[in-house]
């Protein structure tokens, strides 16, 4: 015999959704927008970090080609994409603290 589910399933925890909404709404937001003033306008910091990460990845790839490491890489695209993302996150954290 199968037990019928009642419409009050999870009734004990019904208060958690409004509570979570209130906590999220009352949490302090960042005081500044995630941007950097450049050339008289605001530029998103993540785009600067991404650009620097890609440039550094190209430089690292050139070093890998010079020392012969690029030839033995099995999956070049995932390696360099991961390197670009990792460098982007590191630059974002070190330069902007976010």
TrEMBL record:
It is a multi-pass membrane protein. The chain crosses the membrane at residues 47-67, 79-97. It is found in: Membrane. Pfam families: Ytca. It comes from the Bacteria. The keyword Membrane applies. Residues 1-31 form the signal peptide. Keywords: Cell membrane, Lipoprotein, Membrane, Palmitate, Signal, Transmembrane, Transmembrane helix. InterPro entries: YtcA. Belongs to the YtcA family. This is Uncharacterized protein YtcA.
């Amino acid at each position: 015999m199968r037990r019928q589910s009642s419409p009050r399933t999870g009734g004990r925890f019904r208060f958690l959704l409004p509570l979570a909404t209130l906590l999220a709404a009352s949490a302090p937001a960042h005081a500044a927008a995630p941007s950097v003033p450049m050339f008289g306008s605001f530029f998103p910091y993540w785009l600067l970090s991404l650009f620097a990460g890609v440039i550094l990845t190209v430089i690292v790839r050139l070093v890998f080609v010079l020392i012969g490491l690029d030839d033995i890489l099995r999956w070049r695209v995932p390696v360099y994409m991961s390197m670009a993302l990792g460098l982007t996150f590191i630059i974002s954290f070190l330069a902007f603290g976010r």
